[in-house]
């Protein structure tokens, strides 16, 4: 990958950080996700669903509670973007099975948006036991199967291939791996941060500043920006626009959970290898590259088509979802000390502010009518109060 990038840089000059990330993560031959995608204990990073089944169960309950609050529509597409190893979907489907009587009159299907052939194979084994049919004729999907609990599952390369309809979207640690542009304020105005070969060491890369304004600088820096260093992820903006217009048109909701901030942080671009921080410019293609999600940018890109809630810290969201009660039940039902210790350890990982409790945030897109009755303005007393949005309800009460 380094040789490939070095040739490219010699031929055409420095590239944007976004282009560098795209090559390092998704290059068909040598990209990190296309080649390996190291999720889990043995990989390069670990995600909340891999730590505890409770995480996925509570998210499953969030979707069912929102589906009920929206009047129990008779179809329910669960669409997950970048599903990792499929652990989260597997935990959600277990909840759907346990609450089968509630969902009995509803046509439930699962739609996974996954670009990595390696990861889609792992997901297929996890969710269907490996019984899948590649290239189904009737769909824009590249693979389909039936989950172990009897629910149809389809795989797509792009969110635009997912059929329209009443859908709940899930993006857990998805937006943080999308390519970002980086900008630095200088005495001559804003300059874009680029990646180039280091002239002192031809086998190494370095960051340089663009000599003048780039198209991205003109498009993505807001006139009111007060920070000196800014990261912008245009791809995240496009995806949020698509989610918002689908929710506005067909109903449903989106739940986004990720590292992030509300427009306050500056330099968050980093790499992970074997669960340790890794120099982002060293050995491209061998480490996961990530940057914190700017939720204020996502809110702006929803363009008022949907209501937005959050970001709210993971520990608050899970507390509001009843994680403490669920933990007590699991502790009472576990017979041995080792299991109990594991449960307490994973609870601590998810909830401790020093670990994942404060780093991760939850953010939701919901139809406006979910938060405000359409005719509330005319006859405020005539409508029953709207049910609070699970997980976020503390925010609504403030």
Automatic annotation (TrEMBL):
Q: Segment Disordered: which positions?
A: 373-392
User: Phosphoprotein as a keyword?
Assistant: no
Q: Which GO terms describe its cellular component?
A: mitochondrion
Where does this chain mainly localize? Answer: mitochondrion
Q: Which InterPro entries match?
A: NDUFAF7, NDUFAF7_sf, SAM-dependent_MTases_sf
Location relative to the cell? Mitochondrion
Q: What are the protein's UniProt keywords?
A: Methyltransferase, Mitochondrion, Transferase, Transit peptide
Which biological processes are named by the entry's GO terms?
methylation; mitochondrial respiratory chain complex I assembly
| Catalysed conversion reaction | L-arginyl-[protein] + 2 S-adenosyl-L-methionine = N(omega),N(omega)'-dimethyl-L-arginyl-[protein] + 2 S-adenosyl-L-homocysteine + 2 H(+)
UniProt superkingdom: Eukaryota
The UniProt function text for this chain reads: Arginine methyltransferase involved in the assembly or stability of mitochondrial NADH:ubiquinone oxidoreductase complex (complex I). Acts by mediating symmetric dimethylation of 'Arg-118' of NDUFS2 after it assembles into the complex I, stabilizing the early intermediate complex.
Name assigned to this protein = Protein arginine methyltransferase NDUFAF7
Record organism: Edolisoma coerulescens
